[in-house]
From TrEMBL:
It comes from the Bacteria. The keyword Hydrolase applies. Transmembrane segments: none annotated. The keyword Nucleotide-binding does not apply. GO terms for biological process: GPI anchor biosynthetic process. Keywords: Endonuclease, Hydrolase, Nuclease. This is Endonuclease. It holds the Pfam family Exo_endo_phos.
Length: 252
């Protein structure tokens, strides 16, 4: 039995939905440690199965190293999706950072070092993904805790775009606590503003730390928070999922 069957997902209904829309999610998995303090990658995999997205951008993912678990490898095996690692900490002892899981082929991968001075290493994982014949540029990131750090990181990300030749989705844990912060105002100059939905902390969501930004904006249908019983305990963040119109659906 697959994880989707175990989660009670109607696979035929989901398949019909995917004909009309592309589902892309972002999820800070908190090292696969839940709010109960338990390390349980299988719970993260269960949440992914509940969502049944086409592409997942993940943050705070253990990627292996001496004596450290490779959570991404486990999630890949449990979900059957393609996996791409984007470590921000990469030493023989420990690898840790961003990742992408996708049901579609990955055509190209780039990484962007967003580390700021002596603060915790940060980065963006930039992948071109062939979504059933349409190439999407998916940029998964986890920004810093200081406002000056985030502003510098956003400028660096935007400089990497220039004029987008591909449709782009920028998503991840932006760590922006203020709805009208400079970081978000700067992003609006390049991306469609999506709804700011509260995702953190799962015990009592107060802050919209996790965000999804889309270009061109008219492709974005809606954004939802996935607030299941399992998601409440699996991490300290709820996942966020965007429903994006497929190119063919705009003409028919």
């Amino acid at each position: 039995m697959t994880l989707m069957h175990e989660a009670g997902i109607d696979i035929e209904t989901m398949s019909a939905t995917r004909v009309k829309e592309l589902r892309i999610a972002t999820y800070n998995v908190h090292g696969a440690v839940g709010i109960d303090g338990k390390f349980a990658p299988e719970r993260i995999a269960g949440v992914l199965a509940e969502m049944d997205a086409d592409i997942f951008a993940l943050q705070e993912v253990p990627l292996g190293g001496n004596g450290h678990p490779d959570v991404l490898d486990g999630l890949q095996r449990m979900t059957g999706l393609h996996a791409v690692a984007g470590p921000t900490l990469d030493t023989p002892e420990r690898r840790y950072g961003n990742a992408v899981l996708t049901r579609y082929p990955v055509r190209a991968v780039r990484t962007l070092d967003l580390s700021f001075r002596s603060r915790e290493p940060r980065g963006a994982l930039d992948a071109d993904i062939d979504c059933n014949g349409e190439l999407w540029r998916v940029v998964a990131t986890h920004l810093g805790l200081a406002s000056s750090e985030r502003r510098a990181q956003v400028e660096q990300v935007l400089q990497s775009f220039d004029t987008p030749a591909l449709p782009v989705i920028l998503l991840g844990d932006l760590n922006e606590w203020f709805v009208y912060g400079r970081t978000l105002r700067r992003l609006v100059t390049h991306f469609h503003r999506a709804r700011a939905l509260r995702t953190f902390p799962t015990r009592y969501p107060l802050f919209a730390l996790d965000r999804i930004w889309v270009h061109p904006g008219e492709r974005l249908m809606r954004v939802d928070v996935h607030r299941s019983r399992l998601a409440r305990v699996a991490s300290d963040h709820y996942p966020l999922i965007a429903h994006i119109a497929r190119r063919a659906s705009r003409h028919g």
